[in-house]
Predict the structure of Beta-lactamase class A.
Amino acid sequence: MSKPIQDAERRSRHSAERKGKHKGPETHENFARGFQALGELAMDGVQVSARATDLTTGRVLFSVDDHVEMPTAGIGKILLLIEVAARLRDADFGVYTILDRTAADAVSGPGIWQHLQAPSLPVADLAALVGATSDNLATNVLIRAVGLDAVRARTEQLGLSRTALLDLVRDQRGPDDAPQLSVGSAKELTWLLTALARGEIVDAEASERVIGWLSLNTDLSMVASAFGLDPLSHRDGDHGILLVNKTGTDAGVRSEVGILRGPRAGVTYAVSMSFADTKLSARLSVLDGMRAIGLDLLEYVH
């Protein structure tokens, strides 16, 4: 099947999914605990969007307002990694292409490159830093190299209309800047992770590269906190559990997407929370709710 036909089918599939409106939660019996936790958060004013699907069958296991476009902070960096992986086929943009950081790229927040002495790094190393620590400086350098317009075009080509990387990473957002780094819907994000797992994004090689970068992620503070994995070393699996995930954190935003495989099954999941981060107890309640979903996911796959 030709690539244009595949792209058209993706767009058609997403369009068909968007026609219906959410009519309430869909909950597999194994996910009652997570649904109750999210219901309690919603009662406290937290905006919740979540979805989990069986990786093999595509069956929806858990769904709460999964069509809603939510702020997702660093989750949108996955779209950047997809564009970078696709570009690595170009002769003038290989894995060893050296990129320099500049004063314009400088930003605080997540990542370790800002704390290192090296002024330049290969493309593949920068992508690994984004996957491992959601490195903001590496993100901005990669965006400058491939172009935000190219990332947007790739996103549209994939048929995603409610998921996007909107801007560079900025320490302060002014009135002329995008209000969020990225947005996404749980429905589209679980589709994207499933397609990556199946080698269907760009091609099998590009999908494998993105999965490899994401498998380095060290942030297991949200949904993945329930899986009992070593945050610094979990690529080879542990007690039959394999995880690939990406998190997004901002003021009043906690978001995570992932692929979890176990002895019994595999799942893809996306959970996003938007809340008034005015006191620590509110934030901890959100994290507790995300962990409750993680416990349900673990029970399903293990």
